[in-house]
Amino acid sequence: MNKADIVKLTVEAVKEYEQKQRVKNIKERHTWKLRNTRLLLDHYNYFKDHIDESIYCSDQMETIDIIAEIENCRGSINIQSIKKSAHKTFVIMAHIDSMIDLYQTWCDRSGETEQRRLRVMRMFFFDKLKVPDILQAEFISESTFYRDIDSSVNKLSSLIFGIEAVHKMTE
To answer: How far apart are CA 89 and CA 62, in angstroms?
Structure first.
């Protein structure tokens, strides 16, 4: 083997390695987005309660802003941090609610199977029903339940995270 052949083989090996790394990174990002979608759905009710109970989402906000100005700098920073957190939660939940509504519309147009998947997802994540209760209510098997959850989470992930979540499907 001469130097040109060695260089050619090395370049091909590097290209192959880089392609494998790209595919691995795409799969990891997709897995991360699915995991985050599940976490958002698992904690959906907690986040909604956070928004409902946060003083920064109520009429008390003006009073709290006055108190923050009166307090020392450190207290003001802490209050601003809480205010920022409440605002972020509100924006994220508004986005999630919009995407769930969009998913609802899509399911309504897609037929009974997708409508069932949406019902199963709502019962499991939002209503916090136990798996056996859902199986009985929908007359489905346990394997169908898990397929329905995986399918609905995957579709919601695509809606919540947009094109980044779909990117994996194009590979």
So the answer is: 19
**pTM for this prediction:** 0.67
Q: Which domain holds residue 50?
A: 45-92
Say if residue 136 is in the same domain as residue 162: yes
Q: Are 40 and 160 in contact (CB under 8 A)?
A: yes
Pair 36, 116 in one domain: yes
27: tokens are: 């799969």
Higher pLDDT, 67 or 143: 143
Give me the half-sphere count of Cα atoms (radius 13 Å) on the Cβ side of residue 162.
1
Query: Which of 85, 27, 98 has its CA nearest to residue 53?
Result: 85
Backbone φ and ψ of 54, nearest 5°: -70, 130
Cα separations in angstroms, 148 against 11, 22, 117, 135, 144 = 45, 29, 5, 11, 6
Least trusted range by pLDDT, from 1-15, 38-52, 72-86: 72-86
Residue in this structure with the two tokens 């609905």, named with its chain if needed: 152
Tens of pLDDT along 99-124? 999 999 999 999 999 999 999 999 99
